[in-house]
């Protein structure tokens, strides 16, 4: 489920003639070996690490079949969140209470946040993926869609192999190379792996304390601020300036309150905090204030719908009620969304890849065009917007 969180810069890769992707697979692997050796890894170790690697067409099929991300927020949450998942999450919180206490004391990460990731990534460890991790990483690096994301993970896996924490033949996980109960990439494991159970090993596949402590450290490393909220459901008044909404725009909580934004339950956070007002299905649907910690979610996953769902589920696990779904305007099908993205591109907007997914770039472009056309600028694309364009 997780989309790669590490937008690793190209500067991490050596400035050499090594091909970054494409060509014959065997030639690509030879280049990887030469690069590893040039970076100081022993020849024998490098050869042993890459000896069994194979291209995996199933990985490419999985990469191109992420249709679940085309679901709108309400459908997506109902797809991922069930009463059974909530009950199991609360049961896991009780079972691993001591570990969560340590995480909160050490890293300041709320248990609901980690429980939500644990649930969505692997259903609390039950389904961790059976793709050979090295094959997945090399296959995706050879593919020329996003080599800059995957290639550095191969060399991180090599470092784990050198310390005895990665088996090129037996280590398995998700199709995109993530390993363990909370699905961490090799570089994540190198930088944030924690021996949570004190057995001298970092075992993210079999040890909940290791996996959860490592996830907590990673979120802390990514910038989580202890003691601050991440998401809160709110209500919005009629006549609100909708052009001020969206994940890329922030305002102080006190200013949102002056504009009539109110919590659906409880009280708003400190007035000095900056927050974004999120309307995932427009001004007639659910509404949330996203606080600074919400931005950290995008370092874990780059899908707006997934991130908002994970953040919302974390609040549910900590006692929040079910959101008010409202009565949103009709959205677009996947095919219609692709048409919209093409029309937006034709008008000069950067929407990223034309994939039928309502991501952050598409939302920003939609909001601009809604303002131009005199429509409610809530970043929710409708058939009327599509026809207007």
From TrEMBL:
Keywords: Signal. The keyword Signal applies. Residues 25-314 form the Transglycosylase SLT domain. Gene3D superfamilies: 1.10.530.10, Bacterial muramidase, PGBD-like superfamily/PGBD. Pfam families: PG_binding_1 (PF01471), SLT_2 (PF13406). Residues 333-386 form the Peptidoglycan binding-like domain. One of its GO terms (biological process) is peptidoglycan catabolic process. GO terms for molecular function: peptidoglycan lytic transglycosylase activity. It comes from the Bacteria. Residues 1-19 form the signal peptide. NCBIfam families: MltB_2. PANTHER family: LYTIC MUREIN TRANSGLYCOSYLASE (PTHR30163:SF8), MEMBRANE-BOUND LYTIC MUREIN TRANSGLYCOSYLASE B (PTHR30163). This is Lytic murein transglycosylase.
């Amino acid at each position: 489920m997780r989309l790669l969180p590490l937008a690793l810069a190209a500067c991490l890769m050596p400035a050499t003639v090594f091909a970054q992707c494409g060509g014959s697979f065997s030639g690509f692997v030879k280049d990887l070996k030469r690069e590893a050796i040039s970076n100081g890894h022993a020849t024998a170790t490098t050869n042993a690490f890459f000896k069994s690697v194979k291209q995996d067409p199933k990985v490419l099929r999985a990469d191109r079949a992420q249709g679940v991300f085309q679901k709108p927020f309400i459908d997506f949450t109902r797809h991922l969140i069930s009463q059974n998942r909530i009950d199991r999450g609360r049961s896991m919180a009780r079972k691993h209470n001591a570990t969560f206490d340590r995480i909160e004391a050490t890293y300041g990460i709320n248990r609901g946040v980690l429980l939500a990731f644990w649930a969505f990534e692997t259903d609390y460890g039950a389904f961790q993926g059976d793709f050979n991790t090295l094959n997945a990483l090399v296959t995706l690096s050879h593919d020329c869609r996003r080599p800059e994301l995957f290639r550095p993970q191969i060399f991180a896996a090599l470092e784990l192999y050198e310390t005895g924490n990665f088996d090129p033949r037996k280590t398995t996980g998700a199709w995109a190379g993530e390993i363990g109960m909370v699905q961490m990439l090799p570089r994540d494991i190198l930088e944030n792996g924690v021996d949570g159970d004190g057995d001298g090993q970092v075992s993210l596949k079999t040890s909940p304390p290791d996996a959860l402590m490592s996830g907590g450290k990673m979120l802390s490393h990514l910038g989580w601020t202890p003691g601050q909220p991440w998401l809160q459901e709110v209500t919005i008044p009629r006549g609100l300036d909708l052009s001020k909404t969206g994940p890329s725009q922030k305002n102080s909580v006190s200013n949102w309150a002056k504009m009539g934004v109110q919590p659906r339950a409880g009280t708003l956070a400190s007035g000095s905090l900056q927050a974004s007002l999120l309307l995932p299905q427009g001004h007639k649907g659910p509404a949330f204030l996203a606080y600074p910690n919400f931005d950290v979610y995008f370092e874990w996953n780059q899908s707006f719908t997934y991130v908002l769902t994970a953040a919302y589920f974390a609040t549910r696990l900590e006692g929040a009620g079910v959101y008010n779904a409202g009565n949103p305007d009709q959205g677009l099908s996947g095919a219609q969304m692709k048409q919209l993205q093409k029309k937006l591109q034709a008008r000069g907007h950067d929407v990223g890849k034309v994939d039928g997914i309502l991501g952050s770039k598409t939302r920003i472009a939609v909001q601009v065009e809604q303002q131009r056309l005199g429509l409610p600028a809530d970043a929710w694309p409708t058939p009327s917007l599509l026809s207007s364009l």
